[in-house]
């Protein structure tokens, strides 16, 4: 069985940065991801707030990060971590491929899309219902679609959909957005229509989505809009199941609780990025990755047990 100093679970921006730091500190580190490197980061159409890049697509930045990190540590994609068990001198990690041992763990498991929970959402997933503008946007060129949500993701994706030629309208449940001002300004500038104070009640169709029933929260009125697609960007749910199996403490929203060193309540287990809640930004996840890898390294040095082979 392969033994490592540090295993990082999740290869988004935070996990990749943790891998970069851990590798450069000379630890034997493995980065595992159940999907492709980048995770949800691959779906970000464009970013204007990652220092050093005035404008860059998530996919491009992930490609650069991956190239840099894999010079320093091994990265295994498409390898799902099925269980983690605490053992005498570390952790036993069972994956879809094999088993590993590690002295320290860094959990960078991110979060998954929150669902609306309305009738038709599951039935028409992939048939007009999408959670990823970058992946599916082009399929809806020249079509009438709705973007649901009022945060950074919804506005960013609405701009992307508009730019690829979709007739996109935003539906938001309140009368103001929570997204950053620069995104709100772009929505105005591009004259993307917004339906305020409204929620989706039902998604209807035959083989594919054909219409959406909206309900106005202020006056209770309902309207049925003919649309070919509906994109949903209403936040996320932390992926903290593995952490909970290890008796790692989470808050009431299931975010992993960490201290300033990104350490959890369980010795030698660190957590970073969206799974810990807080400010969910790439630059924050990357910073947390650097912090966790540094303290994980120091912990190994301190206990003088880096050599587990
Ligand atoms: P978010 O900031 O949590 O916003 C979710 C939006 O969906 C809110 O406007 C919320 O409405 C709405 N919503 C929630 N549940 C709903 C429901 N059941 N029905 C209708 N609307 C619902 O989520 P996000 O936009 O995905 O962003 C997640 C995190 O990533 C945030 O911290 C964000 O700042 C960050 N992010 C950053 C960037 C960037 O760097 N520019 C880009 C994307 C995301 P209310 O406003 O009424 O609560």
Outline the secondary-structure elements.
Elements: E1 2-9, H1 13-24, E2 29-32, H2 58-69, E3 74-76, E4 81-87, E5 90-95, E6 99-107, E7 111-113, E8 129-130, H3 133-136, E9 144-148, H4 152-163, E10 167-171, H5 181-189, E11 194-195, E12 198-205, E13 209-216, E14 222-226, E15 229-232, E16 236-238, H6 241-245, E17 269-271, H7 282-303
Parallel strand pairs: 1-2, 1-6, 2-3, 6-17, 8-15, 9-10, 9-15, 10-11
Antiparallel strand pairs: 4-5, 5-6, 7-16, 12-13, 13-14
Can you describe what's shown?
The chain is α/β, with parallel strands linked by helices. The protein has two domains: 2-112 and 236-307, FAD/NAD(P)-binding domain (3-Layer(bba) Sandwich); 115-232, 3-Layer(bba) Sandwich (FAD/NAD(P)-binding domain), CATH 3.50.50. The chain has helices spanning 13-24, 58-69, 133-136, 152-163, 181-189, 241-245, 282-303, and strands at 2-9, 29-32, 74-76, 81-87, 90-95, 99-107, 111-113, 129-130, 144-148, 167-171, 194-195, 198-205, 209-216, 222-226, 229-232, 236-238, 269-271. Helix 1 (13-24) runs parallel beside helix 2. Residues 47, 49, 116, 148-154, 156, 173-174, 178, 199, 233-236, 280-281 line the site of NADP nicotinamide-adenine-dinucleotide phosphate (NAP).
Rg over CA atoms = 21 Å
Question: CATH homologous superfamily of the largest domain?
Answer: FAD/NAD(P)-binding domain
Q: What helical percentage do the residues reach?
A: 10-25%
Order of helices and strands: EHEHEEEEEEHEHEHEEEEEEHEH
- At the first level of CATH, the class of the largest domain is Alpha Beta
Secondary structural class: alpha/beta
Number of helices: 7
Number of structurally distinct domains: 2
Bound molecules: NADP nicotinamide-adenine-dinucleotide phosphate
Which CATH architecture of the largest domain is right? 3-Layer(bba) Sandwich
CATH topology of the largest domain: FAD/NAD(P)-binding domain
| Most strands sheet | 7 strands, mixed
**Strand-residue proportion:** 25-35%
| Global shape | elongated
Distance between the termini: 10 Å
Parts with pLDDT < 50 across at least 5 consecutive residues: none
GO molecular function: thioredoxin-disulfide reductase (NADPH) activity
Keywords: Disulfide bond, FAD, Flavoprotein, Oxidoreductase, Redox-active center
Domain FAD/NAD(P)-binding: 4-289
Protein name: Thioredoxin reductase
């Amino acid at each position: 069985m392969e033994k490592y100093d540090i295993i990082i679970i999740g290869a988004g921006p935070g996990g990749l940065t943790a891998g970069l730091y851990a590798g450069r500190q000379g630890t034997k580190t493995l980065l595992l991801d159940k999907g492709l490197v980048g995770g949800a980061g691959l779906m970000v159409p464009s970013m204007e707030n990652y220092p050093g890049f005035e404008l860059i697509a998530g996919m491009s930045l992930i490609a650069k990060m991956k190239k840099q990190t894999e010079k320093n540590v091994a990265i295994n994609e498409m390898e799902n971590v099925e269980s983690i068990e605490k053992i005498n001198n570390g952790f036993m990690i069972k994956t879809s491929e094999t088993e590993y041992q590690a002295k320290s763990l860094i959990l960078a498991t991110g979060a998954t899309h929150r669902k609306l929970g309305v009738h038709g959402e599951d039935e028409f997933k992939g048939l007009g219902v999408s959670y990823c503008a970058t992946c599916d946007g082009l399929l809806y060129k020249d079509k009438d679609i709705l973007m649901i949500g009022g945060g950074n993701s919804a506005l960013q994706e609405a701009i992307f959909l508009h730019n690829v030629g979709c007739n996109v309208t935003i539906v938001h449940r309140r009368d103001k957005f929570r997204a950053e001002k620069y995104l709100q300004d772009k929505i105005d500038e591009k004259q993307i229509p917004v339906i305020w104070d409204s929620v989706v009640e039902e998604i209807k169709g035959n083989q594919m989505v054909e219409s959406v029933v909206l309900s106005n929260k202020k006056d209770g009125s309902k309207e049925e809009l003919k649309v070919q697609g509906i994109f949903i960007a209403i936040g996320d749910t932390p992926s903290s199941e593995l952490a909970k199996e290890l008796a790692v403490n989470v808050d009431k929203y299931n975010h992993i609780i960490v201290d300033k060193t990104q350490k959890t309540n369980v010795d030698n287990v660190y957590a970073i990025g969206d799974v810990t809640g807080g400010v969910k930004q790439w630059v924050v996840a990357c910073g947390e990755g650097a912090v966790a890898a540094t303290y994980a390294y120091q912990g190994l040095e301190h206990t003088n047990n880096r050599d587990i082979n």
